[in-house]
Amino acid sequence: MANQFIQLAAPGLAALKPYVPGKPLSELERELGITGSIKLASNENPLGPGPQVRAALQAQIADVPRYPDGGAYELRRALARHHDLEPACVTVGNGSNDVLDMIARVFLWAGRESLFSQYAFAVYPISSMAVGATLRVAPAKDYGHDLDAMRGLITDQTGVVWIANPNNPTGTCLDAGPLRAFIEAVPSNTLVVVDEAYFEYADDGNRPDTSRWLGDFPNLIVTRTFSKAYGLAALRVGYGLSHPDVADLLNRVRQPFNVDSFAQAAALAALADREHLQRSVELNRRGMQQLEEGVRRIGLQFIPSAGNFLTIDLGREAGPVDQALLRLGVITRPVANYGLPNHLRVSIGLESENERFLQALGQVL
Length: 365
Ligand SMILES: *Cc1c(COP(=O)(O)O)cnc(C)c1O
Description:
Layout: H1 25-32, E1 38-39, H2 51-60, H3 73-83, E2 90-93, H4 96-107, E3 113-117, H5 123-130, E4 134-138, H6 147-152, E5 158-164, H7 176-185, E6 191-195, H8 199-202, E7 220-225, E8 238-242, H9 244-253, H10 261-272, H11 274-298, E9 301-303, E10 309-313, H12 318-327, E11 330-331, E12 333-335, E13 340-347, H13 351-364
Parallel strand pairs: 1-11, 3-4, 3-5, 5-6, 6-7
Antiparallel strand pairs: 2-8, 7-8, 9-10, 10-13, 12-13
Helix pairs in contact: 2-10, 3-10, 4-5, 4-9, 11-13
The protein binds pyridoxal-5'-phosphate (PLP).
């Protein structure tokens, strides 16, 4: 139905389709009148946070009447130490989506171009359209970024190039060599955003930690999040790493209290608990194996993933399969909105959850 106020809204909003989040457990159970369902739809950490984080959250209750530290002093200092950078390089966000949105507001406007890959994360077009920028979409190669195609689309007007590494919803990951060569080729007046929301899962040999390249590329912004491997999705905390002058601009549009005191305290505690992170990554590695083997046994193909999810080619429309899985109490994520109508994205869960998904999928097919 047409929105009667659309003529009054900023021009980019007419074609903007809002982000589609994974279905919450409570919603499914309310709709079907069932309990005991499982959610493998939003790439969350099935272990949740460790005990230190829980204690830190408890301790924050006393400070509820006070505004949080708007400058996130301790958290930015800890993140700077973690990445061997200055605190002035760190911009905190209400989730890393918030940082992505700040980047769009600072570096894009009507007439400027926003460049990303086909099948790239949905927030790039949303944040870009909200500020009236023109979208440029490079065709994907093997479901991942085609860096040559992307380079060919950069113009004088390109304000921001977005790269998710690993990418969501496909799980593809670029190696250090080609990614670095690409960034070197991007003109210095175009910002390059490398969104590393799944970095902790992909951290091995060839996978780049682009935060180490910030000294070489003043136009590079790296984003990270506590929502995935750190298990803090509900708290909404992420961050950007960049040249201090870029951070200064991002902080000009940042809401003063965008990261609340629970989120700051939890992120600090999570960052210090390397053991829990290791456990989470290890659980994911085993779960990925379990899902890959199970999916192969059913006779289906999937896109090899460096993240905490697997995107499966069902060889037929995923919508009805998703609906049937929902009726069995299993929430996954159809990705037709990304132009992948036959694929289903499933997040790696606990061993028992992965098993239940595989059984349900086998049953539905
Ligand atoms: C999940 C995700 C994010 C992070 O979102 P938050 O706002 O930090 O919860 C960012 N980028 C990609 C590609 C993601 O999949």
